[in-house]
Amino acid sequence: MATTHSADVIIVGGGIGGLTAALSLHAAGIEPLVLESAREVRPLGVGINLQPAAVRELDELGLLDDLAALGVPAVEHAFADGRGRTLFGEARGTAAGYHWPQFSVHRGELQMMLLDAVVKRLGPEAVRTGVQVEDFEETADGVRVHAVDRSTGGRLGFSAEALVGADGIHSTLRALLHPDQGPLQWNGVTMWRGVTEEDAFAPGNAVVIAADDKNTQFVAYQISRAALDRRPHAGQLGLSGADGRARRPGGGRQLERSGHDRGSAAALRGVGVRLDGPAGSVRPQ
Length: 285
Hints:
By secondary structure, this protein is α/β, with parallel strands linked by helices. It is built from seven helices and 19 strands.
């Protein structure tokens, strides 16, 4: 197995963190190489929220317009009880005085946006897919990475001056660096997540957070600018009526918001949905 100088910095993992690191290093004049174990990078996942500090970094990389074309700026967190009755609101992003907005966006679409930027700015050779990193060793002038080509089974070697681990929750590099720490510990929270479409939702692009007295939570928010733009009445759905139910303007189907009712998740469309709570407090039906 021949090892050649591959880049100034090798980044293990082609997710959001790894691709953003590659763009930042490139902007600073440092040549990165991203090694991704998946044979193909696909837009997987559901909704995530980017706080103003994260949006600032993407803005400095010249990606704010691209992000705005994908995601939805969240201007409020709307807190509700288990029946959907609004308790209070908390301003977010620019509405809270930050210089950058908070964006709700589909995780996979964000990753593909970053991948496109890396390919355009650094070239397609900057991202190697189907490469499973197995080990590394420090050398006199940097680091040597040992990997396997998942398509052929062939052994690969890469060298660089530095190595960045961005390979996710089951990180190979973390296990190599900290072998005695063991696996990550479960915090006792069970979560159901999903994405569906609806022609209207909470006013002001709010992130709705409802909770009951058992600390079971129901979280819903819009994540797609394209879906929002093609819905003529998007953003006009009130959060609660006199009986604590959410209604579309002018009537229409009513939506119950309850941390214990998985039917609430099925009723919401065009938004990212999350159900979580202590273990055993929410059960699949």
